[in-house]
# Entry
Amino acid sequence: MEYVAGIDSGSTQAKGVILDEHGSLVGQAILNMERNMSTAAEEVFHLALADAQRRPEEIAFTVATGYGRYRVTFGDLQVTEISCHARGALAEFPATHTVLDIGGQDTKAIRIGDAGEVTDFAMNDKCAAGTGRFLGAASFALELPLSELGSLAMQATAPVKITTTCTVFAESEIIGHLAKGHRPEDVLMGMHHAIATRCASLVRRVGLASEVTFTGGVSRNVAMVTLLQEVLGTPLNVSARAQFMGALGAGLYALDQVRAGRRSAHSQEQEVVL
Amino acid sequence: MTLVVGIDIGSTYTKAVMLDEEKRVLATALRRSGFKPAAATAALYEDLLTNAGVAHQEVTYIATTGYGRYMIPFRHTQITELTCHALATIHHFPTVRTILDIGGQDIKAIRIDERGRVRAFRLNDKCAAGTGAFMEKSAWYLGLTTEDIGPYALRATTPVEISSVCAVFAESEVINHLSTGVAPEDIMSGAITALGGRAVQLMRRVGLEADFALAGGMTQNAAMVTALEAKLGAPLHRPPNGLGQLNGAFGAALLGLRRVERLQTEGHEIPTPGGDGATGETVARRWSTFVPRRKEGQATPVEQVRPLISA
Amino acid sequence: MLTTVESSMISVLERCFELAYADMPEEGQEEDQLGVIGYFPVYFPEEIVHAAGLRPHALLGGGSTTEVRLADARIGSFVCSICHSTTELGLNGTLRPMMGFFAQPICDAAKHMVGIWGRNFPQQPSQLLALPQNANSAAAVRYVYDEYQRLCSVVAEWTGREITDEAVRASIHIYNENRRLQRELTSMKRDEPARVSTAEAYLLIRAGARLRKEQHTALLREALDTLRERPVRPRDKPRVVFLGGFCEQPPLGMIEVIEDTCFIVADDLLLGQRWITEDVPEEGDPIWALAESYIERSASSPVQYDARKPKEGMLMHMLQEARAEAVILAAAKFCEPGLDDQLALSRHLDAQKIPCLVLEFEEKMTSFEQMAMQVETFAESLLFR
Amino acid sequence: MVSPQTSPIEADARATGQRLINQWLASLGTARERGQPVAYVFVMGNAIEILQSFGFALVFPEINSLQTGVRKAAPDFLAKAEDFGFSPDVCSYVKADVGLMLSNMQHPSGVRMPPPDLAIASNLCNVYIKWAEIWERHFGTPAFVLDIPGKRHAEWRSAPDSATRIADTRWVEGQFRDLIAQCEAITGQRFDPDRLAEIEVNVNEMLRLWIEILAFNRSRPSPYNAMLDGLTYMGVLNAYRGTREGVEFMRLLYAEVADKVARGEGRVSNERFRLIFSGTPCYVNLRRMIELFESHGGVFAAADYLTYAAGGLDSAGLFYDPSRPVESLAEVSTLAAQMGLSNHFFSHHTLAQQVKDYAADGLVYHGIKSCRTVATSMADNREYLTSRYGLPTLYIESDLIDPRYWSDAQIKNRVDAFFEVLEQRTLLAKRG
# Structure
């Protein structure tokens, strides 16, 4: 039995998955980025191996994705997270035609054709950057863990209208609204709405086509999912493994390589053949 | 005897200072503003009285400043933090003509005259905001406390460049540098240099007239002070014995004292609290808060400009 | 307890507010059953469209109440708010009733608006009215005349309504009367700022961008009569000139924050409504009269080059005429012409030792704490001089 | 794989171009001593022909500014302008030029730029006019604003002999007459129509060749990269427009490109994807940007930028009629503005056409944060073309010369993903 690895080396988190030769996930691991990308990738790789109870030499091929993909020293091939998120989303939800991924650094909308190919993609221009970070600012200001923001927002009864999506002013805006006596949940809902609107406009850049799959950590935020469905007017697929979509996609690309008869050469530069 | 209180209600901290007629600091107090600044301030005021060991009725005059200056019903008057900083600074350093105030949300450069009157001032562009907060966040990413930043950055050997003006992108740069294994002290020092550069740029816009003084949160940040003094090629005066954070409150108190003196020399009695509306007066009708009759789904009320005060 | 004068003033202003911030009326719903031609700032020869029996509709952006949902997918985030919100109003259907859309080459973003309109609303004709940036050539008036003639035929083609000289002359007469009343209001505000606030004057003039001019004239008359009756309580506030309202409109809240501590005795708000500064000749070729007035009887703005109107000189003249002691220089975020002039003027004022406050705004602003702080400090620095 | 840029014949035209550009820059430094009058002009709408006929030395502040970027000196100049008070939102070309003024006109090329006797700003980019106002304040040189009406909407063309064609041309000609009078006043010489006619003959010849050189890049593989080699060619096209050197350069270039096409030699050794570039380049990282694409075998066969920056003269195959020099200058300038220069406000048609003409596989938009002229409606434009033609497009964002806006990781990420898209498409096409 041969195995492959997919490593998603983002700037704030590293994720890794191990797939068997049928493409089923046998191990996964996630790690908050410490000092150095390369070491973090190594670490997450070994954690995933441990989770799958496999040894490094059993891994026939490794594909790296994410901003740090060229720093994954043991990666055999680098593929961008655009292709990987699309591939991962398709594996989980085969009817996917649009992928939305909200990350801390970037928000991406990906359009997928009927043959499962990426036909178009859009990433936030500078000022819409880090829409995910906008939530980080909220948790900072409200002194709440990120994971609780969504559920709290859902309790809103009179959402506040928030016009700025400038992350810099998010905190002061929140404090301002609270000082005016608005309830935290109402302010939070306002913020979520502002972000959802921003992300929706990104999806519109590539053209909305159902089914829509929502990937990335933020997809676990219930308020965000609800609002996006409302703003986009279509239900969203959300996988339990939403955070691992990139890594999963990378793993599947690795599997392609193995099926095409290629084996790990641990060379940095290989011609990308998708 | 005259007891004057200055309260600075900032977005993160609320600070208070009590002075006597000799401008001696009798007591100071500090609290997080939290979500209910009015309540926080009331509590803070109690702290101040306790610290000073005086009772409510002994206090002659209360002046408020900071973004919450209108939220405090028991004030006599309110004044903006810029005017307060100017007064406080000239009190400590009669030769200062340009003040730099680095706050959490914005940087302010103020030109003053020999009597501490504001002559010109400039705030950073919207897109260069959030600088102080950016320092805090960076420190947080690096696993440091705000206090550590200064000493830490001083250890830098090969500082990196943080080029983004926008705090959000700057943050991304920090994260990226970090993830590529750059030493934290080099990143921090890079961030400080960048911030210092922008601050001096702002000072130029008001004329860059010597001497210079630094106010706000960064006064205790050795690295920042060094960076700024290097850029300015001149020393930066800083408020003495930890008054830095209290500068706004101190200035408000000084102004309150002036007002009391004026009232007494002119033989008026001190008005009852509630704001003498020097600048707090509001127009007959706030059209901006007026909601037009719109088709369904269209009506969205415009935010109230600011809490209207009822004198 | 409000006086009768005050309450009738408020009722007039409420009507103005409704109009000033109302959406475009649905087809046919408008009382006078007119077709509507929309135009993007700054100036547009409304008389020509008015003469066709249509209602010219100044597009003044989405203010702080329009939620931009669709336009952000079409326009970069580094472009001013009024382009985003105007496109949004198009995409969300608010501007559907327009029979046509015009923009002028005031800036590069505005020129793009015509391209955006053409791509997204092919069923709604759109054009650039190519007003000239060279106002100093001997050939300028003739060119504007030709471009206005072209406008006449375009409007006729779009709406099937011919535009006769008699009709244009009649419209000019109506507009001249309206302009006289606007000038009266402006000078009242300048001479007795305590009698009418800038926010009030703003509502009165902005309502005119949503009404047939004859109706607006009646409304202005009523307002002016009431205002003359209004008792005035003089107050001690610094007299300032406000610049920055020539295209994207600052939110009303911003004007009010300024007026809390200052008297705005002169400004460039809604400049397009006041671009022509004198009566347009009512005899001779009316189109020529309009063209000549555009070049010879007009205000100045950061988006119109005219060697006869150096920006610094125009501002100093404004200051003296309004007996103002200080200037507030505002610029819309991402408005390059505005930002360029803001810098030049602030440097000039510094050199002249005239106090000035530099502000940055966006039509969609909703919180004014920081701005209030700056304006109050400015006022304090003026009062404690 | 970046193709060898040292193949002898390519080095030739590029080298000659570089030499001409440097010669021209150097000549500007000595214009004053020669007592040569100096005119500041922009690349879009500039009446160079008239100025040449009066023997003006031509300063292109846009080229000065981009040169600060190419020579990695931009940051200092930008910093000077921002210290002076210019907003980050203002065009970085303007700021670099202000930096130059604040540096005693000492340009990184080593040339001390002369102040203008005359400055012409057209309306084709409104920033030109604000820029010229800055010169008015700094040099006291009044601006000559040349207003050339362009398209009134995307599908709009002024028919020959139509009222508008006549009116627009008359307007432009009127301004040329004003300009000629001003030139006479400045130089103290009479206007010489025959000299203007000679210049126009030269321009016609340069143009005839330029149009064919552009057409050569339709062949596969493309002999040159429109966004690298093309920029050098353009520099000469502007600085030497109407001159003998200009004509000779174009002949040399024509021969070189023709030869390459004949030999089937491409700019990139393994041309895999033919691309169209929309927008202005990033001059600080130009090589890096091109390398990002060429390393994937992607070459820019064409760019709308070439039209804007070449005065739009190629856009409709317009030629001067030297027998009526001034009149025909007015006619051609008017049409060039209509069909070429005002196109970035309606560029969807042109781009669609270029994609067809050059058999392009994809379209790359480069948005400039501080340039509303090219970037305001790129997203809308992109949406329009992708939704209609299903064309693969890429949107990247940086700046003209401000390195602060170039984030390599982000741009590489987008470019790599774009080529993965293109690869997938070819793969699917193969599968049928």
